[in-house]
Protein 1
Amino acid sequence: MTIPPLNLQAEFREIRSALIPRMRRIFTSGRYILGSEVSQLEKDFARFVGTRYAVGVASGSDALLLALMAFDVKPGDEIITTPFSFIATATAIVRLGAKPVFVDVEPDTFNLNPDLIRKKVTGRTRGIVPVHLYGNPCGMDEILKIAKRFKLFVVEDCAQACGATFRGKQVGTFGDFGAFSFYPTKTIGAMGDAGALTTNNKKLYEKIKSLHLHGQMDHSYHHPLIGINSRLDEIQAAVLNVKLKHLAKWNKKRRDAAERYHRLLVKDGLSSPQRRGPTKKGTGNTSCLSPFLSVPVETPYGKSVFHQYVIRTAKRDALFKFLKDRGVSAAVYYP
Ligand SMILES: *Cc1c(COP(=O)(O)O)cnc(C)c1O
């Protein structure tokens, strides 16, 4: 037996009976773009996350790009973000000619260290793009405080963290935008590329509605903005409508699995405890750096969805081989 990193066939078996008739309905309807599946998903996704609005777009990368476009990010602008993420976070900034300004991560959560942001704010800084890496929410209190103080926008990269909470509220509700990816490997994945933006701001919502349809506004062939073509299609929306009903349960299962890893690893004395104490500063915590391995750390107010269960160890390559020889998948995430 080989233990795979992800088993999408098993997930499909769970949704198959709900999905097939829905697909048949779409195929026979002839309506493949911006139909009822998309509008239902936008409504239900906003309700699930806890925002007033959601817009389906073509990918998580486009969600980030469109959010920055909505703030007219342009050459010369500086956007503060983390160097430890999938490349799409930084390239969304670079594509608009702006400069990603990297702030280092916390050694235990791997998330943007809020205490180091202030030092990087200049007269050109426009916004902050925190990433809830591996499904673990960033320290949003401090990030929002700095954003408010310096009048910066906040776009949360929620690509790996759909359903994760901070102070009981889901990620994607804190910033001006939450950018979500429904790439198949994410905690809720489509059967192709898909993404969404969430927001509570009506003006920003309307701007995204326009920007993702080539800047169209009010009626066809009227394009006051320069936008892009980034729509969610009916087929992907149907997959997501079916999966959304399972997401809370699936995320709970992820947390249960993580809890089990914690228990086994910590109990066997291989690692240090997994919850960080309620210290004021995020830095200076080195308890995760045990000589053998460190397990994921949750902050006092954050609840991770464990998109990945990422450990650190000085004997990485040896452990990697050990697991591989026994049929257990592992990966360096990110090299
Ligand atoms: C997956 C991912 C993205 C990009 O999403 P796509 O849907 O693949 O374009 C952006 N940021 C992070 C952190 C991701 O994990």
Note: The pocket of pyridoxal-5'-phosphate is lined by residues 59-61, 85-86, 88-89, 131, 157, 159-160, 181, 183, 193, 195 (CB under 6 Å).
Protein 2
Amino acid sequence: MQFVDLPKQYQLYKEEIQERLDAVLTSCRFINGPAVAELEKALSENTGSPYVIACSSGTDALLLGLLALGVKAGDEVLVPDFTFIATAEVVSFLGAVPVFVDVEPDTLNIDPAKVEGRISDRTVGMIPVSLYGQCAEFDELNRIASAHGLWIMEDGAQSYGATYNGRKSCTLTSIATTSFFPAKPLGCYGDGGAIFTDDETISRKLTMLRNHGQAKRYQHSLIGTNGRLDTIQAAVLLAKLAHFDDEVDARNKVAAKYTEFLANRVRTPVVRPQNRSVWAQYTIRTDKRDDVIAHLKTNGIPTAVHYPIPLHQQEAFAKHREPDELFPESLAASKTVVSLPMHPFLSDDEIETVAQHVLAALKQ
Ligand SMILES: *Cc1c(COP(=O)(O)O)cnc(C)c1O
């Protein structure tokens, strides 16, 4: 069994993907080819975000976002303690300081009630993550940000396609990012990402920053980087985007089926009423995690742990290590979470098989 069945997806969309790729290969316009702008327009229509800037990865999207926001050495940026390292890494990369915030016990998204206690004179903004495909509490987070004069940027690497009160992820904050890493809900065939904004000035800055700070060739007004999305990746994404809404429906059916089998036996994922998840992961929680992983592995079922070490304990951040007592929920999650195979093509039989093996492992 595949954890994310990309081979199956390719077989299903093969003709459309190959047709799009062939157009790029025939034109040989590998950098800034027409598919890139076409993708940006399609993503803008799909989300309702006025400006979309495609870029080289979800990590670069975050980095470009911070550059556009003017983050500098010494600034503090609030990030959840329980996320993939990229969210915080980009802050440190610019010489700023990631300040970790504990997460909510049920959704594992940044806890709005714990944000204000972490704000200092040096805090400039926050990067809430919409973990596992479910949006964080953006009404409350936006309110806190605006009350303290902070910017807020959603890390929607796992949540492209999710909704919050009927509004799309990546449009809930003035600036937001996503990733098209192959295993994300909308993935390309290599690295890719995008930034979304409703601010025209920021959008113009981002378009320059991702291309060496130039608006015109060899006229560099900003210090930027090579952060462009390959035309080939834009072509793959355009082919896949046509099927994406159906895939999100299918993911929700898979998740509902898992929950049917597993509810009350393990802690199944909690989705708040205002949210619709894209199920980047279907992550359960159990004290018998190691038994579950071992038993599933024996039966040919892959699992993954997102994430085994909270950020405040990562060696890379040892310089400003903070006490475990500040992050009880994040720590508890790191010891109990395990993600099951999740993709739109899981059959009812496969879902039942995975669930039965989870239940069998718990009985041992
Ligand atoms: C995957 C991911 C990223 C980084 O995206 P890449 O495209 O791999 O650089 C950032 N934040 C979160 C929460 C992610 O899951």
Note: The longest strand covers residues 51-55.
